[in-house]
């Protein structure tokens, strides 16, 4: 499903109808650079090639039904493949997988060439060593601003007992042992 052009124009009008000053793009980015987030790799098969990218915008939307979402800039090199995809995987990276995150965030390279992934029987790639992964069916692509919010229904998963990779202010972090 996708949002109609009418819905997009309604959103644009709603955003423009308010006379409050908006944050600049730089100020807005400054806020979210300081927000710690888990790191994931979204991956899919687009005909005979694999497509993947790093995302820190993955959120849980609903447990019943199991839905998650993430955003992707409309100008991303991965968007054309994602706009055609029916299914994908989200691999939540583990502490120590900074190199994987960096590779999948780098433009102009074959992000899968270095290996470190396994294809599910359905064909989508999962990152080896990830703390968890979800295979899902895309249920909606909603244009919002200069990005798309992609909603996914979870169909299958895997989990490992390892710590997550955390990203904050352009630096990778690891969890520390909690104090009682």
Query: Please, what is the average pLDDT?
Result: 90
| Name of the CATH superfamily | Electron Transport, Fmn-binding Protein, Chain A
* Major pleated sheet: 7 strands, antiparallel
The secondary-structure class comes to alpha+beta
Number of domains: 1
CATH class division: Mainly Beta
Give me the strand/helix succession: HHEEEEEHEHEEEEEE
Helix amount, in percent? 10-25%
CATH topology: Pnp Oxidase, Chain A
InterPro entries: Flavin_Rdtase-like_dom, NADH-dep_flavin_reductase, Split_barrel_FMN-bd
Protein name: Flavin reductase family protein
Domain Flavin reductase like: 32-174
Keywords: Oxidoreductase
SSE blueprint and pairings:
Blueprint: H1 5-16, H2 25-33, E1 37-38, E2 40-46, E3 49-55, E4 59-62, E5 67-73, H3 79-84, E6 87-92, H4 98-105, E7 117-119, E8 125-127, E9 132-144, E10 147-159, E11 166-168, E12 171-173
Antiparallel strand pairs: 1-11, 2-3, 2-6, 4-5, 5-10, 6-9, 7-8, 9-10, 11-12
